[in-house]
Amino acid sequence: MLVMSQGQSFAGRGLTANGFKLLTNLTYYSRMRLAQQLLSLLQNAAVVRHVVTVAGGGREGKLDLDDLPLHKLSHTKVGVQPDTSSVGVKDLIMVLPVVGHLSTMVTLGLEALAQRAPNVSFVHSHPGTVATPMQDRVGGILGVVSRTV
């Protein structure tokens, strides 16, 4: 069984050494590469043949076909400024297309792997709100709600 939950909040602005957005690498590329590399072991497992990725399952949205790796993603596009440490409602609303884009990419990637390995089950889930330090940075009424739910 392979369970993957690596990721980063949408506020993450880092780049990898090869120039890709850290957000895209952790949310999509690392998950697909890890599952792909372990696929033969999973297919030949004696008992449990499952791949579970905890991300945005059920939150799929429109793909930006002109920018699949999100190279054009800017801080202003997701509503987070480099010098801002708090996140507000407007920031979260503006990031929804990015969440939808990445969630769709993960789901489609898992579907492609499932075609190659029909004896392995693939699950893309979304756990809902999870208590993390990121909630401390959410401002306004949304911050109050997210910290009390």
Structure description:
It is globular and about 50 Å long. The protein starts with a strand and ends with a helix. A 3-stranded parallel beta sheet has the order 1-2-3, with helices on one face. The chain has 149 residues and is mainly alpha-helical. It is built from 3 helices and 3 strands; from the N terminus they run E-H-E-H-E-H.
Biggest sheet: strands, sense, closure? 3 strands, parallel
Which bin fits the share of residues in helices?
A: 25-40%
Low-confidence stretches: 75-85
Reading side by side through the largest sheet, how are the strands ordered?
1-2-3
Name the shape in a single word.
globular
Summarize the structure.
The chain is mainly α and 149 residues long.
What is the fold's blueprint, element by element?
Blueprint (H helix, E strand, L loop, with lengths): L1 E3 L17 H22 L6 E5 L34 H28 L4 E5 L14 H9 L1
Parallel strand pairs: 1-2, 2-3
Name a few traits of the molecule.
149 residues, 40% helix, mainly alpha, three-stranded parallel beta sheet
